[in-house]
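Morning, I've got a small favour to ask if you have a moment. You're getting the sequence in one-letter code plus the fold written as tokens. Thanks so much in advance, here it is:

===
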Amino acid sequence: MARVYSTYEAKAKLSEILRKVRTGQSVGITYRGDLVAEVRPVDPLRESLEERFRRLEAQGVLTPPGRPNRGIARVVRRPGALKRFLASRD
């Protein structure tokens, strides 16, 4: 770890901390003397966009277009419910 900042210093010197992180250094932040956080560079993603889509689909986060999403139940059975609702509010 390159340097450790107190919470107060970290708030005042955020730009300096980000410059250090952009050069590959890790920075620690303390709260009342205890190390509570580490700011470090993010590892770049090594997967392509298509690979990310496949991974997110496998995790159930994304649903491919054209395939019904089984996790969301249909709330309205009759078309025009929004129009009727808005008309009832007038």
Notes: The domain at 3-39 is CATH 3.40.1620.10 (YefM-like fold). DSSP finds four helices and three strands in the chain. The helical segments are 7-12, 14-22, 49-59, 81-88.
